[in-house]
Each structure stands twice: as C-alpha cells, then as structure tokens.
C-alpha cells in the first residue's frame, strides 16, 4: 500500500486526504459506487474511481442489472407512486357512481405504473417488468406489483398491506352496495 494521500467526492463535497485502505474499504462496503471521482497528487484531474488503481476493487453490477451492489449504489426510489397505487381503490369508491369509473380506474393504474417505472429510472435503478401485472390486471394486479416492487427495493411492506386492505374494502363496499340496491 502506498502512502499517497487520496481525495474523493462524497455527494457534493470533497473528502480527504485519506489513504488507499480507506478508499478500498469504502468500495468493499458499497459506500463508494462506480463513477465516484477520486484524485491524488500527480493526477491531472479528478477521475472516476474505476479508471484508477482501484479498478479491481470497484463492484460490478450483474448482467441483469439487479445485483445487490447495483441497488446499494442507486438512489432511493420515491415510494409515493406505490402509496398512490395502494390507495387508488379508495378513490374509486368515491368515483364508483360516476359513469366511466372503470375506465378512469384502468387509466389511473396504467398511468401510475408508467410513472413508477420512470421513478425507478430517474433513481438510477433498472425497473422490472412487474408493472405489467397492473396494466393487465388493474386493481387485482396491484398487490402483486407492489409485492414485487417492495421485494426488489428491500422496502417495508406497508404499501403492499395497504393495497390488499383497500382492495378488500373496495370489494366489500361494492358488494354491500349491490346488496342494498337489490332490496
């Protein structure tokens, strides 16, 4: 190991001087993703860590783009679209007497699925094709999609449980309304 002091970018701030061992440890721990800029005396400019002597220490994502190391380095994915998907049946209860509510619901699920897919991309993550569950099955596919989403991101299952409960509530209220309308 050399005694050359190194500097690295952590977000918008430069950190250093640190030794080679610190850089290597951060790479091993997943706290320094590929693309992190590093610099030491003798370099003309800051360079991506993978183009320096640390190249062998930079974790590589798997061929599927879904490795644990790729997930560690990606930005967090905003959970808001997942919560909107989970709670959409509550909105449908309000709109259920409106003509065309089914079409509104279908468009809502499709729009939210596409928006959530783009949220993944903006966060630097590879979106899965699980969103097709929602597009093809609408409300019935939403819990499946949200389960796959939570598992992929390592998220708590709050929006998965909320999706199942709001869907059951929607079905129960719809059935009760149909029972009372028949009387």
TrEMBL record:
<keyword id="KW-0812">Transmembrane</keyword>
<feature type="transmembrane region" description="Helical">
    <location>
        <begin position="160"/>
        <end position="182"/>
    </location>
</feature>
<dbReference type="Pfam" id="PF14237">
    <property type="entry name" value="GYF_2"/>
</dbReference>
<keyword id="KW-0472">Membrane</keyword>
<feature type="domain" description="GYF">
    <location>
        <begin position="6"/>
        <end position="51"/>
    </location>
</feature>
<feature type="transmembrane region" description="Helical">
    <location>
        <begin position="130"/>
        <end position="148"/>
    </location>
</feature>
<keyword id="KW-1133">Transmembrane helix</keyword>
<feature type="transmembrane region" description="Helical">
    <location>
        <begin position="82"/>
        <end position="110"/>
    </location>
</feature>
<dbReference type="InterPro" id="IPR025640">
    <property type="entry name" value="GYF_2"/>
</dbReference>
<protein>
    <submittedName>
        <fullName>DUF4339 domain-containing protein</fullName>
    </submittedName>
</protein>
């Amino acid at each position: 190991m050399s005694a050359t002091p190194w500097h690295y970018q952590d977000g918008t701030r430069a950190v250093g001087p640190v030794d080679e061992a610190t850089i290597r440890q951060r790479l091993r721990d997943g706290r320094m993703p590929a693309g992190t800029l590093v610099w030491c005396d003798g370099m003309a400019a800051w360079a991506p860590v993978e183009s320096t002597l640390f190249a062998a220490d930079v974790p590589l994502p798997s061929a599927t783009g879904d490795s644990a190391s790729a997930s560690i380095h990606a930005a967090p994915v905003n959970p808001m679209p997942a919560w909107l998907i989970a709670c959409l049946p509550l909105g449908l209860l309000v709109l259920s007497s409106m003509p065309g509510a089914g079409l509104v619901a279908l468009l809502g699920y499709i729009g939210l699925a596409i928006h959530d897919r783009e949220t993944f991309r903006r966060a630097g993550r590879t979106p899965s094709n699980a969103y097709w569950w929602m597009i093809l099955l609408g409300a019935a596919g939403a819990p499946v999609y949200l389960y796959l989403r939570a598992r992929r991101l390592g998220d708590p299952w709050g929006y998965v449980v909320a999706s199942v409960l709001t869907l059951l509530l929607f079905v129960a209220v719809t059935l009760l309304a149909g029972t009372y309308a028949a009387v």
